[in-house]
Amino acid sequence: MSDIYRKLAKVLDTLPNGFPATESGIEIQLLKKVFTPEEAELFCDLRLTPESADEIAERTGRSSEGLEELLTTMWEKGQVVRTLAGGIRKFKMIPWVIGIYEFQVKRMDEEFARLSKEYNLHVGAPLFFGKPHVMQVIPIEEEVPRKHTPILYQQVSTIIERSRSHGVTQCICKKERGLLGKPCDRPQEVCMYFSEDEGAFEDHAWVRPISKEEAYGIIRMAEDAALVHMTTNVESGHWFVCNCCGCCCLILKTVRKFGAEFLNTSYYAVIDPEQCTACGICADERCQVAAIEEGDNTYRVIPEKCIGCGLCVSTCPSGAITLVRKEADQIVKPPQDEREWLEERGKERGVDFSAYK
């Protein structure tokens, strides 16, 4: 039985996102929590390109009997993605992050939370290290200086407006922390999902459908609660927006420890010492990555830590903080879409994932 889980772990690590092995084998325990042996075997036969049950059966030689039902169960359990194309259900494999892990939000229990934390202690940084970045920061739109031409893929409103379906679910990072006895006091139901398909979340197993107006409301709530907007590091095809805090989010915790290089960012904050009243709100209540420090009667931003989210700008009582666009040679343009991201990431990691395209 363990052989199929080792095979699954190897498949997941062959995907561009990665799924690093550990000496303790904790990753195998995680997979056993998520997949039955039958589900693990089928996952290894899937591809990153959506296929119908009949197409999968024809390609793999599997029997089509009961195949769509099993794939649907796997979708309900957050192991695969299901799409609708012309009324036909299609399924594809997904990486561990961003993917399977986040989709376990309804199934996570205390044991899973413990295993996940232990795994991340060993491989957290490697999962997000390298190029292209896994995630990019979306700054608060109102705080982007008017003199700058808006970057459409860095606007939450663009993602919301281009989507026909909107959904939300509990943040799995916050749920994990709560299960481990350290609950977060910020809003929990803040992970947002988007789709170009009408009614995509109406019968979803773990995403609650919401209206476009509700989506904007969640964004405003997140900003009020000092949560950082982040999404996948591409120009088009965004399907989620995370609203994250520094106490729960693995990526932000990594940034706090190693610096902003783990995120794709286009802005940084600057504090005018002449206007700063040293109230400390920016450092104590708003910044999620410890990028602001106290000086002599003023505060200053640590450039190498700042992720340009704008949270400190929006609540500065003296208006001393502004967002500044990085110089052109310091801005990293994201891949065009997920397919291009996968190709670039696979090349950077030196993995051949052609069998799963």
Notes on the structure:
The protein has 357 residues and is an alpha+beta fold. It contains 14 helices and twelve strands.
Furnish the topology, listing elements before pairings:
Blueprint: H1 2-14, H2 26-34, H3 37-43, H4 53-60, H5 67-76, E1 80-85, E2 88-93, H6 96-100, H7 110-128, E3 135-137, H8 156-162, E4 165-169, H9 172-179, E5 191-195, E6 208-210, H10 212-224, E7 228-232, E8 240-244, H11 250-258, E9 267-271, H12 281-286, E10 292-294, E11 299-301, H13 311-314, E12 321-325, H14 338-349
Antiparallel strand pairs: 1-2, 3-7, 4-5, 4-6, 5-8, 7-8, 9-12, 10-11
Helix pairs in contact: 1-2, 1-3, 2-7, 7-9, 8-10
What structural keywords apply?
357 residues, alpha+beta, Alpha-Beta Plaits, 3 domains, 6-stranded antiparallel beta sheet, 14 helices
Summarize the structure.
The chain is α+β, with helices and mostly antiparallel strands and 357 residues long.
What distance lies between the first and last C-alpha atoms, to the nearest angstrom?
27 Å
Poorly predicted ranges: none
**Largest sheet composition:** 6 strands, antiparallel
What structural class do helix, strand and pairing data support?
alpha+beta
Helix and strand element order: HHHHHEEHHEHEHEEHEEHEHEEHEH
Round the Cα radius of gyration to an integer and report it. Answer: 21 Å
Number of domains: 3
Strand order of the largest sheet: 3-7-8-5-4-6
Shape: globular
Strand fraction band?
15-25%
Helix coverage percent: 25-40%
- What is the count of β-strands? 12
Number of helices: 14
> If you average the pLDDT, what whole number results?
94
